[in-house]
């Protein structure tokens, strides 16, 4: 139960971090595709 919860939280965090990284990259380098 708890382990599954941790896995889900980790995956969600990793996804959000990926989204944030792409957003920041676009803000810093708007010319990049």
Automatic annotation (TrEMBL):
GO terms for biological process: neuron differentiation. Signal peptide: none annotated. InterPro entries: Engrailed_Homeobox_TFs, HD, Homeodomain-like_sf. Residues 1-29 form the Homeobox domain. Keywords: Developmental protein, DNA-binding, Homeobox, Nucleus. Its main location: nucleus. GO terms for cellular component: nucleus. The keyword Nucleus applies. It is found in: Nucleus. Transmembrane segments: none annotated. One of its GO terms (molecular function) is RNA polymerase II cis-regulatory region sequence-specific DNA binding. It comes from the Eukaryota. PANTHER family: HOMEOBOX PROTEIN ENGRAILED, HOMEOBOX PROTEIN ENGRAILED-1. This is Engrailed protein.
């Amino acid at each position: 139960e708890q382990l599954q919860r941790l896995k889900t939280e980790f995956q969600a965090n990793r996804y959000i971090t990926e989204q944030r990284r792409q957003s920041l990259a676009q803000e810093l380098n708007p010319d990049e595709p």
